[in-house]
Design brief:
Layout: H1 3-7, E1 10-22, E2 28-44, E3 54-56, E4 64-73, E5 83-85, E6 91-101, E7 108-117
Antiparallel strand pairs: 1-2, 1-5, 2-4, 3-4, 4-7, 5-6, 6-7
Length: 118
């Protein structure tokens, strides 16, 4: 059993912008978000290490960018506009398109995540 397979025990929630609706002024806006629960996931530092998984800007701001990778079961529908909420409440933005790995011993998808605070 691989380390990733052993760690894939977390349930995450995909928070997806809801269908567009008209607001009180008649403009189109995103509706209430859809929430999709996905079991057997893992959220880890990029490449399994903590070095380089977060950074700070040094321009008189307190911005911290944290990077993670979501490992989810093959076939999980994750889109670039989605956000991923962990069980502990952390909320990450999806960065780019997910990568499919269907022909490995642990078929899964990998999704780059980013959290910007400050």
């Amino acid at each position: 059993m691989s380390l990733i397979h052993a760690r894939m025990s977390e349930t995450v929630t995909i928070v997806r912008p809801g269908p567009r609706v008209r607001d009180s002024a008649g403009s189109w806006v995103a509706g209430p978000p859809d929430e999709i629960s996905v079991e057997r996931c893992a959220v880890m530092s990029p490449y399994g290490v903590t070095v380089g998984s977060s950074s700070e800007t040094h321009d008189a701001s307190q911005t911290v960018v944290t990077r993670r990778v979501l490992f989810a079961p093959l076939g999980t529908d994750v889109r670039p506009a989605d956000r991923i909420r962990r069980e502990n409440g952390e909320l990450f933005d999806v960065v780019g398109r997910p990568l499919d790995f269907p022909l490995t011993s642990l078929a899964h998808i990998e999704v780059s995540l980013q959290e910007v605070t400050g």
